Amino acid sequence: MSARPGRGAAASWSPGQQTRFPGFDPAAQASHWDGVTAETVLRRLTPPPPKFFTADQAATAEALLDQLLAQESDQKIPLIEMIDARLATGETDGWHYSDMPEDGQAWRGSLAALDADAFSRCGTSFAEAPGIDQMALIQAVQDRGPGDWHGLPAGYVWSLWTRYACTAYYSHPTAWNEIGFPGPAYPRGYKNAGVGKREPFEVADADPGDDPLRGEA
Amino acid sequence: MHGVRDRNESAWLIPGDGTRTNHRLRRDMRRFADDDEIDLVIVGCGAGGSVLAQRLARAGWRVAALDAGPFWDPDTDWVSDEAGSHHLYWTDPRVIGGTDPVPLGSNNSGRGVGGSMVHYAGYVPRFHPSDFATLSRDGVGADWPISYPDLRPYYEQIEQELPVAGERWPWGDPHGYPHRPHPVGGNGEIFLRGAASLGIEARVGPVAITNGRFGNRPHCIYRGFCLQGCKVNAKASPLITHIPDALAHGAEIRANAMVTRIEVDERTGRATGVRYITDGAERFQRAAMVAVAGYSIETPRLLLNSASRRFPGGLCNDFDQVGRYLMVQGAPQTAGRFDAEVRMYKAPPPEVSSEEFYETDPGRDYRRGFAIQNVSPLPITWAEHVAAQGHWGRSLREYMSDYVHWACLGALCEFLPQPENRVTLADETDQYGLPVASFSYSQCANDRKLMRAARSVMEDILRAAGADEVITIERYAHLVGGARMAADQQHGVVNGNCRSFAVPNLYITDGSVLPTQGSANPALTIMAIAARAADRLIRDARGGAPDGPGPGD
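^ Those are the sequences you sent over. The predicted structure of the assembly is below.
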C-alpha cells in the first residue's frame, strides 16, 4: 500500500480518553487465564531496563516509539524496554532483507540516522527536538517510500520500526482496553460468537458508528 | 471411527484427564544409539516427517526422527497470547530478496515436534484433480509424476486421522468429511452473508479441528488462538495426531537435534546417516535410509550444505534443481468495516471457504485461480493491516480502537513455479556456523493478475455483506517446492514416490516435493504424500530394506 502522508499528526482522536469501551479492563480477568499465559502476559507490566541500546540510542528510540504510538507522558506502555529485550536476546522475526543489515544493527543504524536528521533540522538530538519536528522527521522517512534514506531503503526501515512498535504495543494488556479485545482465552473459551454477540465479560462499543474511515473516501 | 483407531491410536494415547501430554509414553520412548544402524532416520517432525515415522514404526521399522526444536507440551510451552508465541517459529536468520521478497518466520515456518502445523490455521482442503496436470491442461506450471487418484486414498485416511470437520465439499473431487461443520462466528457469518447475496458458493470448513470428542481429544472451545498453538488438543497437528502412535510403536523422537549434514559413501553412492548437533556437541546417527522433511527452506539448505566431492554443487544437485521452483501463495487479505460488532477474534480463524475461483476461467486474462477463506487477525497482526494503510501515531491508535467492527477475508492465489524463485546459500552463517538460506522471490505477470482479481472478489463479498469501507494488505502464505518431484532428474530432485534420483536410499517427504501448489493450504497434501511414500516403502523396500534386528530384539 502506498503511504498517505500526514497520517500521524492529522487525527483528532486523543489518546488517554478511553471512551469506546467504558470500564473494560482485560488484566482484571487474569484469574481466568491459565498460569503459563498469565505469567507471560503480566511479565510485560514490569520489563527490565534497556541493555541492548546505549543510553543515547534508548533516548532516541523512546522518542521515536512514543511518536509512532502517540504515547504521552503518563501511563506509557514500556515500548523501548520491550523492544530492547527482544534485540538483546536476538528474538528477531527470523529474516532480513538482502539490502538491510540484521535487525539489531538496522535499529542502531536507523536511530543514528534519525539523530543526524534532527541535528540538521533543529541542531539537537532527535529526543531533544520539539514534538512537531519529531513528527516531521518521522513523516519524511515514511514519505520516502522505497527510496534511499542514509543508505537504507526507507520503506524497509519504516517496516522495521512499525513492526516492532506495534508488536510491543498491542501485546500489552493496557492496549487491549482501548480496542475491546479481552486477551487470553484459555481455559475459558468463548460461548457467544457471532455478529453483535458478546460474552458477559466483554464491553459494548459505546460509539459503534465512529468509523475512522468514514468521510475519507 | 473404529477403523481409525486400528491404524492410528494417537487420539486414544493422549491423557483423558484434562492434561494434554502423555509423559509416560515420552519417558519410556525407545532410544537408539548413534552407532546402531537404524532402518530410517528422518530429518524434521512436521507434517511429512511425523506421518512417515508413524507409518513405518507401525510396520516394524526401526525409526528415529530428529527435529531442531523442542518436544512441545501444550500445557507448559504454549500460551493463549500472540506475542508470547514467537518461539513456535523458525527464527534463525535467513536472507530474503528478489523483486518481491517474502518475509519468513511466523507465517510460514515451524520449529519443534509438530512443525508449522502447530501454528497453522487448520484449513485442510484437498488439491483438485486439475492441480496435477496444470502444464498440459492450462499451459502453465508443471505436471506431476503422480495424479489425483494416486493420492485420493491417502487424503481419505488422513482426513479421518486428523479428523476434519466441514460441509460436503462440492469442488475438485466432491467428497464429505468425517466431522460435521463447526458453528461459525461473526467473521464466518459475514462471509456467508456476502457470498450468498452475490451467488458465490461458500462452505463451512474444511477444518482439522475436532467437532465433538475424538479419542481423548476434547471439543474445540472456540478460543480463537489457533495460530498460537492449540492448548486444547482440539486442532490437529502431528504432535497429537501421529507422534503418540509412532512412540507407542517404537519410534524415537529426538528433539533439539539440528541436522547439519547428510553423509553419503563415495564408494557406494548411498547415504549412511546424518550429522547433527545436540547440547552443543556434534554427533552422527547411522541409518540404512535417510528421509528429509525440513520443509521448503531447510530441506534445500540441508542438501546444499551437504556438498561433497561426488556432489560439489550440493547433494542431489547434479542438474541444478535443488532449491528451485519454490512457491508461495499470494495471500492478500481484505477487511471490511461494519457498524455491528463482529469480534473476529472469537471462534477459530478458519471458518468458511470458497473454491469457486480455483480453476482456470477461459473468460479471464490469467491462468489458474484462487481460493477465499476467513482469516481472523489478532491485534498485533491487525495492527499490520492498519499500519500498511500508512497510519501511525494518533491515527493508528484511533483506527485500532475500531478493531471489534472489522471482518477479514484472505485469498490464496496460485502463484506459478519459476526456476529463479529459489533457495541458495548466503555468506552469512547461523549459530552452528552453517551458511544460512537466501530466498529470492519475484512474481510473474499472471501472479499479479491473480492478486488483483482475488482482491476485487473479496471487496465485493464484504461490500455485499454490508461493509461501508474495505482495506487490503498484500502478503504471502505457505511455502512449497524447492526439491520437487518430477518424471526425471533433469526436471526435479525426487520421483513420484519421493525417492531422490541421485541417491537410492535418500527420500524427501515434505512440502518441498510439490511441483505446483493449487490454491489450497498444503498441510493435508503433504501428509497424504508422506503416507503414500510410506506405503511404497513398506511394500517395496528395495532401496534400503530393513535388515537389522526387528522391533523388540
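DSSP finds eight helices and three strands in chain A. Confidence is low (pLDDT under 50) at residues 1-6 of chain A.

Shout if you want it in another format.
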